[in-house]
Amino acid sequence: MKKFFFSTILCACAFGAIAQQHTFTNSGTNVGIGTTSPGFSARLHVQATQVNVGDGERLFYGTVPDAPNEFIAITNGASQDSIFNPVIYGAKHNNKSGPALLLMGSIASGVDVQANATSPVMVFNVRRDYLPNASGSSTAVQNRPIFQWSNLGTARMTMSANGNLGIGTTTPSAILHTNGNVRLQGLPTQNHTSVVAIDNNGNLAIRPYPTPSPSLTLNCANTNYLSKVTGTNTMSCSQVFDNGTFIGIGTTTASSGIRLNVNGNIQALGITTLSDERYKTQISPLIGALAIVLNLKPITYQWDNRNNDGLHFDNNQHLGLTRNSEFFTE
Fold it and tell me: What is the spatial distance between Cα 250 and Cα 227, in angstroms, rounded to a whole number?
């Protein structure tokens, strides 16, 4: 009699605990938490208690004993009533390394080496018109972005419904659309016949080189010479020489320290030279300056083209001085 009484008390307490936790069963198969009619053919149906917007409706909250402030939760992220935006939330608050939330898929090594092992290990799938146990078929998303990676609400990477991926933009117009600097590192060095070109809209395309369409003939085999267009589809060497040390126009030689050597006359609207005292050192007065000026002999002359072939002298009359820096050489 005492045993029966004690068993009855235990059953009553268990029933009271179940009622207190709002746990119910449906036909002895499906279990509902927060609902008296578990549905959708689910063995476990959880319905959160409705709260005010912003308070967060939690369907699941899990922790471990040695890290009580870190958890995983399934909540409603909607900011309006009558909307359910499921959020899987992982929280990490200690200073130890490791992710706050890790999604992992695992397969057996034997499955990985099968000849027909082409299915991905993890799949992120989106679609339209899908409801459990609903009639009709699902269709692909047509307009809205299907994936987005953000940092505190600021979108960093977005994939559109057509598969375009945008980095720095939420409206990608190409398979890969970047808005910002792009850096390529570790590219192999190989001999190819094509180059990558970019148009005014930032679109990249491969162009054949050196014979793009229409065919382009490059008639310049001289090293360090810049090419110039000489016809609709032809290019040849220009008179500009650049070996990385100095630039020569009409010449391939230059004295030490010369960065530009022109073999011929120069016409310019203006030439800027640095004559500021800040750029000079070892400044001393010039002794006998007046005598030097009085010894200068102005002359008129023409260049000697007969004995200086290749210097491109003109045949004009010029004004100048005799002697090559006679009075200014130290």
Answer: 14
